[in-house]
Amino acid sequence: MIRRAEPSKVTLFFVSRQAHPFDVSSEPLGEFSQSHHVLQLGGHCFCHYYFLTPNDDKPFPVDQLIDYQLSLEGESLDLSPYYLEGQSQCAFVIPKQLNSMLHGSCRNPHHESKDALISASHFLASKRQQASEEPSVLIMSGDQIYADDVAGPMLLAIEKLIDALKLFKEPCLLEPLGYGSSQTLYKRDAFLPTTKWHERSKLELGYWLRRDLEHFTSLKSHNHLVHIEEFFALYLLTTSAACWQLVELDTLTFDSTDPDHQAKFVKEKTHIAEFVTGLPIVEKLFANISHITMFDDHDVTDDWNLTAGWEQAVYSNSVSKRIIANGLISYLVFQGLGNDGGEYTLTLLTQFNKHSENGYSNLNAFDKQILAFDKWHYCLDTQPKIIALDTRTHRWRNETDFNEPSGLLDWEQLVELENNLTGLEEAILISPAPVFGVKSIEAIQAIFNFCGQPLLVDVENWMAHEGAARKLMQTFKRADTPIETLILSGDVHYSFCFSVQSRFSNRDNRIWQLTASGIKNEFPKSLLNKLNTLDSILYHPSSPLNFFTKRWQMKVHKHRHKESSKHLVSDSAISLVRLENERLTKYQLLHGDGNITEFDLNEKS
Q: What is the pLDDT of residues 167-191, one digit of tens each?
């Protein structure tokens, strides 16, 4: 994988069955030094991190193709399986002047939709064949894995891969899971930690109804990942075709006395088989374009840190805290280190390596460090500048009501964001949840929150917290913040394009809310059509209801796609964002089925 690439450093990441270091060579990069770090995950599983830096003061070339080669003990490795169609080498671009980029989120292997990363790979190959302008960076803004929504066949594959690669195992956290996945398939949710009803506050309704408080609130947590080796294996199976050759999907079987579970297993296996077929094409994409990511809740668990009450329950339970820490450690290993090029994360990885030298028998000692780490966010000095927001671990907690949704960023991080934006003419924000979402859906979430059920409908929009919403809107209205800001978001499993301007400002600044979700996931189409109609009726531009929202000082315009009157799209897709002179000129969706949707940036409602 080509990870963060910039003029001063290029980061490469790959996994091998051997610890021996490879050599990276690239004529276009000139003379450079390479720093190699290896992390052993098992007897036959080693993560390799390479940091390439120029030897002299001259930076690496930017905005041009850079081919590269790997060798082992002087022998060149065969990278042809990773060549894009029609190419004879692997190559990537170090982005500086952004003219075209790919962005998406939410990739669930067993969802019935098509994997849009395949379409992205084909698109990149076609542009390279034509020698025309190609996307220079791939941005993935959350839910790269679904740790809380795991298919039955996937869980069996995880168990088989753990044995095949001899991944190190941590001591069993939940006794029933020690008997093997086949014994607890679709039943894990019954064993996940809870707070007993008599330990709950008497101010909570659950105490009087004698209901235990579930720590893991996903409605699809029947196969929730628990142990660290399971998280590692899921990452490998989500990105590597070779790992599936070790697993042999056809050999995975499940016999259940529950006909619903049996039917579900067969259906999920069909969808996963299609997913696995497309992985070699996806691998070509990752080997030929720089990509950066940011986590969202499903990378760890659904509703992660949604309320202060959730945090209080989960982090006070040793097993629940270990599961969350496992999600973060796996993110560090497979995503985090490549996002900042090891600037902050390498020290953290080194500490994890020390704690795991004798296996994973004492990971509790590392939990405090990983949970306290506060440098997951990062910037990339491109034009426009990319600012990636960590909206999960810097929450603005509601101190008066622990069951109220927390703000997505606390005051300190909002001030840091303001400082990053000040003085820029243009900027790109990566915000996993849309800043400007669909008002009718947010209104429904507000009703559920009023009824004391924020976890039921995932109340995680920016406007759910008064303080965070007000500070963010004030930042956008400042005269010294960017004239044009692109906000790249995911999370919601549908895609849309909104443009936003201040109602009371003489400054012609514009914010584009570009939401692309999901890469392999979809919102129920019939329900989305109804919400689309409801939103058009209740919140049309002249509707007085607009003045009752927290963003009433901002005019939000909805852009329809060119072949329909609707502005919400629920088809798996990855977006193509085109810029000219650092301003948005085209916004398209490359769908998993090969179709393309283009939004009309001039026509608005």
A: 999 999 998 887 777 789 999 999 9
Q: How confident is the model at residue 541 (pLDDT cuts 50, 70, 90)?
A: low
- pTM assigned to the model: 0.94
Query: Over the Cα atoms of the chain, what is R_g?
Result: 24
Q: What does the block give as tokens for 344?
A: 């902050």
- Give the dihedral of Cα atoms 159, 190, 106, 248; nearest 10 deg: 20
Tell me whether strands 75-76 and 510-515 are parallel, antiparallel or unpaired: unpaired
**Is there a contact between 134 and 100 (Cβ–Cβ < 8 Å)?**
yes
Q: In terms of C-beta density within 10 A (0-12 exposed, 13-18 middle, 19 or more buried), how is residue 65 classed?
A: middle
Q: Is-contact 90 63, C-beta < 8 A?
A: no
Characterize 146-164 residue by residue with b for buried, 16 or more Cβ atoms within 10 angstroms of its Cβ, and e for exposed: bbbbbbbbbbbbbbbbbeb
CA distances from 507 to 237, 470, 476, 478, 554 (A): 49, 20, 11, 9, 13
Specify the range with the lowest mean pLDDT, choosing from 111-120, 143-152, 200-209, 405-414. Answer: 200-209
The strand order across the sheet containing 385-388 reads: 378-380, 385-388, 426-430, 484-489, 510-515, 496-502, 554-559
Q: What are phi and psi of 86, to 5 degrees?
A: 85, 0
Contact in structure between 561 and 498 (CB atoms under 8 Å): no
Phi, psi of 396 (to 5 degrees): -90, 95
> Pick from 525, 444, 486, 598: which is nearest to 112 by CA?
525
- DSSP of 69-110: EEEETTEEP--GGGSPTT-SSEEEE--SB-SEEEEE--B-TT
- What does the DSSP 8-state code read for residue 406? P
Burial class, 313, CB count within 10 angstroms (exposed 0-12 / middle 13-18 / buried 19+): buried
**Phi/psi zone of residue 582: left (φ > 0), alpha (ψ -120 to 50 degrees), beta?**
left
Residue 88: both structure tokens together: 């004879």
Q: What's the pLDDT score for residue 115?
A: 97
User: Contact, 568 vs 528, CB < 8 A?
Assistant: yes
Angle 46-49-55 (CA atoms, 0-180°, nearest 5)?
145
The values of phi and psi at residue 405, to 5°, are: -60, 140
**Best CA proximity match to 195, nearest among 297, 305, 310:** 310
Q: Is 219 helix (H, G, I), strand (E, B) or coil?
A: coil
Residue 29 DSSP SS3: coil
Residue 80: C-alpha distances to residues 88, 92, 194 (Å): 7, 15, 50
CA distances from residue 319 to 195, 216, 217 in whole angstroms, order as listed: 12, 11, 15
What's 333's DSSP letter? Answer: I
